[in-house]
Each structure stands twice: as structure tokens, then as C-alpha cells.
Amino acid sequence: MIDVNIDGLEQALKALNSQQKQIPFATALALTRTAKAVEQDVRAEMPRVFDNPTPFTIKGTYTKPAKKSKLFAEVGLKDHTAKGGNARDYLQPHIYGGKRTAKRSEKSLRSRGHLAGSEFMVPGRGAKLNKYGNIPKGQVVKAMSNVRGHFDSRQDSKTAGKYFWLPGHGIFFRKGKQLKAFLVVARNLRYKKRFDFHGFAARRAQAHLPGEAQKAVQQAIDTAR
């Protein structure tokens, strides 16, 4: 989250000295428009930082507008969506570095004792990835459904053509006589900082604020009664 505050507005607001009641309106308008412009800049920056990010990732930001009674605007990362996704948890490791938050499937495997707290799941060589480099959600749902009842690598009528848990290694499936890795265990998975969200957003806010302040002041003057 980055806050866009009133720094840099003072010069523009001098034009409203004779119309004091319009200052909160002009301030809130300038801050809100600046925040919205920053959000668009952040979204445009993501494809330059990440390799082919999904629409979910790019749209994982929000703008909270300023109000006359609350003179600051906010640009941040969504912590929930209508479909239950969480862009904040996904993006924060790339902003701050360190471990990422466990996914639902990983939490489920941990609850059964198949994954330790320091273990995560990553695509195996046998997984088919979509154009964004991810495993389609439907395949993960199917694999997790299969794994609920199959926790060994025996090839019999119960496991043939299905996913199963191979202890210490991950989720596998058989294709003919070959054993294919679908999701494999990754230990002590850590991310490096790669997205300077706060620094980038702050720089873009400084670039947008003077112009938005001038336009907001002019609109306040034009609409004053």
C-alpha cells in the first residue's frame, strides 16, 4: 500500500485562498486522480517486471479515493476478489522478498501431514502449463481430489490414470509405464525482491500530483458558488 498525501499541493491551493471552502474538494479530487493514475502506471509496469503476468495479477491493485473529510488516497494490493483469489499474498514476496503464503492446496496437504511448514509445491516436468506458465486450476482441483484417496505409487485399478501422492516427492501420475511429476515438493522456497512497488508508485505520484492539483484547483474555481 502507498498513501498519496497532500505534499506538493500547497502551491496550487494558493489560488483558492479567497475560496477556502473549495480547498477540501480540490485536495481530495487531486489526490484521488493522482492515485488512479499511479494505479494505472503500476499495472503497466507489471509486464516489464514479471514474465507474462496473468490478468489476475495485473488487476490485483485497487485505489481508495480521498474524501473531503479524509484527505489521503490509497493505492494497494487486493487481499480478496469475488472468486476468492488473493493478489496481495501472491505479490508481496516479490515486493519484500522471503517466503510466499501457502496456497489452498498446500494448506490442505500440510493439514494431512504430507507437507512440512517449510515445504511448498511447484510444477513438475509432467505438468501441462497454460500460456502464463501456470497449471490450470481445473487440473489442480482434479489432482487434489484424486490425492484424497490415493497416497502411494502402486499401479492398480485404483490409481491407473489418476494422480497420487508419492511421499516425500509430491503429486504424480502414470502415463503408460512412465511416472510423471505433476507437482513436486520444494523446500525452503524463497523469493528475491524484484518489484519496487512502493518506490515506483511514490515516484509516479510525484510526477502526477502537480498537474492533477492544477486541474483540480481550476475545477474548484469553475464550480464554486
Structure commentary:
40% of the residues lie in helices and 16% in strands. The chain is an alpha+beta fold. Strand 2 and strand 3 form a beta hairpin. Helix 2 runs antiparallel to helix 7. It is elongated. The chain starts with a strand and ends with a helix.
Provide a brief overview of the structure.
With 225 residues, the chain is α+β, with helices and mostly antiparallel strands.
Give a count of the beta strands, DSSP E runs of length 2 or more.
Answer: 7
Oligomeric organization of the protein chains:
single chain
Q: Overall 3D geometry?
A: elongated
Give the biggest beta sheet. Answer: 4 strands, antiparallel
Helix content: 40-55%
**What Rg is obtained from the alpha carbons, in whole angstroms?**
25 Å
Query: Regions with pLDDT < 50 over 5+ consecutive residues?
Result: 149-157
Which structural class should the secondary elements be placed in? alpha+beta
In DSSP terms (H or I, runs of 4 or more residues), the helix count works out at 7
**How do the strands line up in the largest sheet?**
4-7-6-5
DSSP strand content: 15-25%
Alpha-carbon distance between the two ends: 36 Å
State the order of secondary-structure elements, H for helix, E for strand.
EHHHEEHHEHEEEH
**What is the average per-residue confidence, as pLDDT, rounded to a whole number?**
85
